Amino acid sequence: MKKVSFLVCLIFFIGCASATMLTDKPMTQYNQETEFRIDQEDAGFVITIYYSKYQFWPQSGVIYTACKSTITSIAYEHADKLKKKIKPINEQRIRFDMGRNSLSGVSSCSATVKVEFDQ
């Protein structure tokens, strides 16, 4: 009984929670840490990313900043490929979900934002 109690307590304190995927559609590898998906719309596109990175010491602020920077960079790169200008991305409109798997040491972030073309 003591072993079971110990294991339950250990699992409770360690915790394993990855960021929720904000899309169920296939994603494309961007780099070692990032996958992304772009869904075209009439007035722009919706970009969704999943970013994950091993961190010995968890630093959620670092993951949040990297996630925000990555989604913005990919949005501007995609607009450049289309030879279109986009409106500035309002960071308040980026939807985030973050998680940390303490067993593997991987911190993760999912983010999505609607990007509008500049007419």
Description:
It is a single chain. With 119 residues, the protein is an alpha+beta fold. It has one domain: 2-Layer Sandwich (Alpha-Beta Plaits). The chain is 30% helix and 36% strand. The chain is built from two helices and six strands; from the N terminus they run H-E-E-E-E-H-E-E. The protein has a six-stranded antiparallel beta sheet with strand order 1-5-6-4-3-2. The longest helix has 23 residues, at 60-82. Residues 4-14 have low confidence and may be disordered.
Question: Which descriptors would you attach to this protein?
Answer:
2 helices, 119 residues, 6-stranded antiparallel beta sheet, Alpha-Beta Plaits, 6 strands
Question: Short description, anyone?
Answer:
This protein is α+β, with helices and mostly antiparallel strands and 119 residues long. Helix content is 30%, strand content 36%. A hairpin with a 2-residue loop joins strand 3 and strand 4 (44-54).
